[in-house]
Amino acid sequence: MLDFSIMADAFPNLLKGAGMTGRLSILILLLGMMLAVPLAYARNAQSIWLHGPASIYILVIRGIPSLLQVFIVYYGLGQFSFVRNSALWPIFRDPFWCVIIALGLNSAAYTAEIIAGALRQVPKGLVEAAQALGLSWFQTQRKVTIPLAVRAALPAYENEVILTIKATSLASTITLLDLTGAARLEVSNTFAPYEVFLTAGAIYFCITTSLSWLLRRFEVRLSAGHRNEERRVKEFQPVLPGIPDH
Amino acid sequence: MESCSSEGGTVVMSAVTKRFGSFAALKGIGLSVDRGEKIVICGPSGSGKSTLIRCINRIEKHDGGSIVVEGCLLDHRLTNIDKVRREVGMVFQSFNLFPHMTVLENCMLAPMLVRGLKAAEAEDVAISYLRRVRIADQAAKYPSQLSGGQQQRVAIARAMCMKPKIMLLDEPTSALDPEMVKEVLNTMIELAGDGMTMICVTHEMGFARQVADRVIFMDEGAIVEEGAPEQFFRQPKTQRARDFLSQVLH
Q1: Which residue ranges make up each domain of chain A?
Q2: What is the pLDDT of residues B189-234, one digit of tens each?
Q3: Rounded to an integer, what distance in angstroms lies between the CA atom of residue B70 and that of residue B168?
């Protein structure tokens, strides 16, 4: 059966790995979001010069396995002398940044698709109402379109966050000691794959479920009020002229 | 070149055309509205009524002809569009209240962002208009917590908070349950008493009789007939208007 002492011994090193997994996930999601917002607007744009390239980018990224994207950035780019000679070489030489770039670009495509869909869901009439009130395009985006799109996008984005966290395990294939990498190292030291991998799995599970729970709470808080289930419609409310409200 | 002048009527449209693909929605509209005038536009569905009033604040772009609102020529110039939208309020058939804001926030948004009022000033303005439409006690609620009639009254208050010179109403009672039509009509009648210029697309002929200075009857993208309400209802000149009236009045 399970050897709990091996699990306990491995735990500190695995936690260190989990720290790396957390750092990777946060940076990947940040990069992904930064690229996804302009990409989503481009995807929804009328002009073919905007939505064409954005659509192709999303299509290509979605059609290639993430592991291959990590390999292309880490092993592939170093092949070109102009990359090796550029100021960015310290970044492309470092597996940490390579994973962030590869998975960040990957997450950007999926996140852009989610945001673009959420932006399209905002009723046209609300945008017209904002325009009719004299709001500029930016004001309309900031006050009406984006707040509503965020609410619409959250459930799908929660899923993207979890997929990204799990995808960071690919970092272990290019020498990084993330949670999966640390687990593999522990296994090679202890020859107890069952205990160590199970413990690593439990840690992944705790991270993803607690994050998912947090995002759900956030979602509920955001949609308080306007997604009120019990619509309190007053049945009878006579209009009495001359009686002021209090 | 001066982009806006203060001459002529409040709204002057001449030879305005608008197409949606191969469908001609407006076929050469000529319409001049005086300051303070109340106009009711009616006609069968698809006759171009909504398109016409949506062109007045350029929610819809017209293809041909010219539209001058408060002395500003409506064309591609963004400054003119901004000026016009600041003076023109609009009430929609489907209310279009912002669902993520409370009633009060809905009313404060544009005065703060567009007119530059401070929050306290905007709140005073909002509360005073919410009082006028008798819904100030619901100010902290979200639109989804209100009935359709209440939502439309909030929408009217929201438009009023910008203190517009012209109010456009696009079938404001068509999406309401029958028992709520009256409260909204009463609000609109009160609004008309303020001396604001009003252009209202509606099938509420009672409202037209009571409030309108002029009734405009449209069909197939053109103004077919116009006149004082009494004259229009009693003796419509065209067969098309007679057919339409016999359908909406009975």
Answers
A1: 4-235
A2: 988 888 899 999 998 988 999 899 999 999 999 999 999 999 999 9
A3: 14
Tell me if B110 and A133 make a contact (CB, 8 A cut-off): yes
A132 CB neighbours in chain B (<8 A) are: 57, 59, 85, 88-90, 159, 168
Q: Which residues sit opposite B222 in a β-bridge?
A: B219
Nearest to B236 by CA among B37, B248, B211, B169: B248
The nearest alpha carbon in chain B to A233 belongs to B147
For B168, other C-beta atoms within 10 Å of its C-beta total 26
3-state per-residue secondary structure call for chain A? CCCHHHHHHHHHHHHHHHHHHHHHHHHHHHHHHHHHHHHHHHHHCCCHHHHHHHHHHHHHHHHCCHHHHHHHHHHHHHHCHHHHHCCCHHHHHCHHHHHHHHHHHHHHHHHHHHHHHHHHHCCHHHHHHHHHCCCCHHHHHHHHHHHHHHHHHHHHHHHHHHHHHHHHHHHHHHCCCCHHHHHHHHHHHHCCHHHHHHHHHHHHHHHHHHHHHHHHHHHHHHCCCCCCCCCCCCCCCCCCCCCCCC
pTM: 0.84
Tokens 């619901």 — which residue?
B138
Q: Report residue A223's pLDDT band, with 50, 70 and 90 as the boundaries.
A: confident
Express each pLDDT in B96-107 by its tens digit: 999 999 999 999
Rounded to whole angstroms, the Cα distance separating B225 from B243 reads 13
Contacts of A151 in chain B (CB under 8 A): 100
Using CB atoms within 10 A of its CB, is residue A224 exposed (0-12), middle (13-18) or buried (19+)?
A: exposed
Q: Cβ B145–A134 below 8 Å, yes or no? A: no
Contact A132 B90 (CB under 8 A): yes
Strand ranges (DSSP E) for chain B? 11-20, 23-33, 38-42, 64-69, 72-73, 88-91, 166-170, 197-201, 214-219, 222-227
Residue A26: how many other CB atoms lie within 10 Å: 13
A136 touches chain B (CB under 8 A): yes
Give tens-digit pLDDT for B25-56. 999 999 999 999 999 999 998 899 999 999 99
Residue from A128, A133, A221 to probe the interface with B (highest B Cβ count within 10 Å): A133
Which residues in chain B are contacts of A123 at CB distance < 8 A?
96
CATH 1.10.3720.10 for domain A4-235: yes
